[in-house]
Amino acid sequence: MPKFPRGGNPSRSLSAIALAWISAFALAACGGPGPAPDVTFTSLTGTAVSLQDLRGKVVVVNFWATSCAVCIGEMPDLAHLQRRFGNRNLALIAVAMRYDPPNRVLDYAEGAALPFVVSLDPMGKIEAAFGGVTGTPTTFVIDKRGQIVQRIVGALDFPRLHTLLEAKLKEPA
To answer: Of 37, 103, 149, 153, which sits with the fewest C-beta atoms within 10 Å of its C-beta?
Structure first.
């Protein structure tokens, strides 16, 4: 029988263990590093941005939804990330899931004054090109050579992400 700290809640401890195991399994099941898909995002303002055009930059692609509380909670931190690293060759693209009503995405993006590209994916083509996104948030980090170096399913650990971005931004293109 596992031992729990005095006064600890066995079901909470088991839940934390199960969550950690599921998260690790989900990351492993998502596949390892590989080339980023050749996709073009269309911003809410109608500007086309392709991953090919972003070669030489570190790119963060975040799949999110306005109905996702974790996603909305991360948006201020993503905005900070863009402001902190944007002048150092970082591009951040937030892709709204296909089930997200475009008017709601537009209202949120404008109201929050998001300083990065926000794109719609009404047909799910971008989501499919990234191997299918089954939950939000899901975030991809792509290096300057166009290789996916990390897929993060669930809430972002921003200190860890900052460390990864610092390292990737120092690498040659």
So the answer is: 103
Strands (E), 67-146: 90-96, 117-120, 138-142
**Residues spanned by the domain of 154:** 33-170
Q: Token pair for residue 147?
A: 């290789």
pTM higher than 0.85: no
Q: Which residue has the tokens 């839940």?
A: 15
Cβ neighbours, 10 Å, residue 134: 11
Say if strands 90-96 and 117-120 run parallel, antiparallel, or are unpaired.
parallel
Question: Could you read off the pLDDT of 72-85 as tens digits, one per residue?
Answer: 999 999 999 999 99
Domains identified in the chain, total number: 1
Residue with tokens 């971008």: 126
Residue 169 in tokens: 């931004």
C-alpha gyration radius of the chain = 17
Least confident range from 27-36, 137-146, 156-165: namely: 27-36
